[in-house]
Amino acid sequence: MSLNRAVTRATVTGGILIAAGVFVLAQQPAAPPAAPPPRDPHANEVPPPKNPPRVVMAGATVGAPPADAIVVFDGTDLSKREKEKGGGPAEWTVADGAMVVKPKTGGIRTKQGFGDVQLHIEWAAPSPARGSGQDRGNSGVFFQSTYEVQVLDSFENATYWHGSAASVYKQYAPLVNVSRKPGEWQVYDIVYHAPAFNEDGRVTKRATFTVFHNGVLVQDHVEVMGVTTNEGPPYYKAHADKLPLSLQDHDHTVQYRNIWVREL
Ligand code: MG
Questions:
Q1: How much is the average pLDDT of 2-29?
Q2: Ligand 1 centre from 125 Cα, in Å?
Q3: Is the dihedral of CA 17, 20, 26, 29 positive or negative?
Q4: pLDDT tens across 78-111, in order?
């Protein structure tokens, strides 16, 4: 083989090898794009509170007071209550684990004052039912002795809607009527936030109610317009941060049992 032919063959062979290499390289996948910087999945999260939730022993049964509740009526006596007008021993009747309104003796109130609370209270309207409208199984739970969640026998008993059972009296009708028959035990679970007043006595934050009646939401964080008065428009009048919880004597033998509060 001449030198020229050998060089030519080597050149051709080299060219083929280079072409093959380029072909092989061309067949390889493109290099992946540069990885994004590592992302912190917890960036911008709301940080957890510094302390864990306090442990509270739940009640033994649904509706029973949890360990941090203040039991204001356990079915045995009225020692934690007094007459609403003028104080003195409450005169309502206690029997079979319940207290019963004693008509004409007046409303009763807790000796202890409360502000923001969660309240559990069970009640039953008289049976057989007598009267109609507001004159049937009427009582009421007054927060801070001022703002009433109505207690009324509203089972097949028409009245103005914002005066029926679980209304914020004359301000908000319940979202639905889940009243049980007279004589049957009913339950209110209520979250109440007290109003706030400035130094001039003007309201700066209205009271609010959230109410469950027999487990059903009937007041959804409503803003109380003021005193739940029977006549005239509601109004606010400055009062202490903590005031008693009162129950109304409206001349009807409404029963109450298992009353407890949790201060919020
Ligand atoms: Mg009432």
A1: 54
A2: 12
A3: negative
A4: 999 999 998 999 999 999 999 999 999 999 999 9
**What letter represents residue 79's amino acid?**
S
Ligand 1 centroid from CA 238, angstroms:
22
Residue 57 has pLDDT above 70, yes or no: yes
Assign domain 73-263 to its CATH superfamily. Exo-inulinase; domain 1 (2.60.120.560)
- CB neighbours of 98 closer than 8 A, spacing ≥ 6? 75, 124, 255, 256, 257
Cα 229 to averaged position of ligand 1 atoms, centre (Å): 10
- As a whole number, the mean pLDDT across the chain is 92
| pTM summary value | 0.85
Question: Most distant CA pair in the chain: distance in Å?
Answer: 137
Instruction: Give the whole-angstrom CA distance, residue 47 versus residue 254.
Output: 49
Cα gap 261→264, rounded to integer Å: 9
- Dist. CA 248 → ligand 1 center (Å): 6
Res. 147: pLDDT tops 60:
yes
CA–CA separation, 62 and 215 (whole Å): 11
Neighbours of ion ligand 1 (CB under 5 A): 138, 140, 150, 248
The three-state secondary structure class of 89 is strand
Q: How far is the CA of 203 from the centre of ligand 1 (A)?
A: 25
Among residues 120, 72, 119, the alpha carbon closest in space to that of 99 is found at: 72
Q: Is residue 21 pLDDT above 60, yes or no? A: no
Which amino acid would we find at residue 110?
A: T
* Domain segments of the chain as ranges: 1-28, 73-263
Measured torsion, CA atoms of residues 67, 118, 141, 122, in degrees rounded to the nearest 10: -50
Nearest to 116 by CA among 242, 248, 239, 258: 242
Beta-carbon contacts of 242 under 8 Å, excluding residues fewer than 6 positions away, are: 113, 114, 115, 144
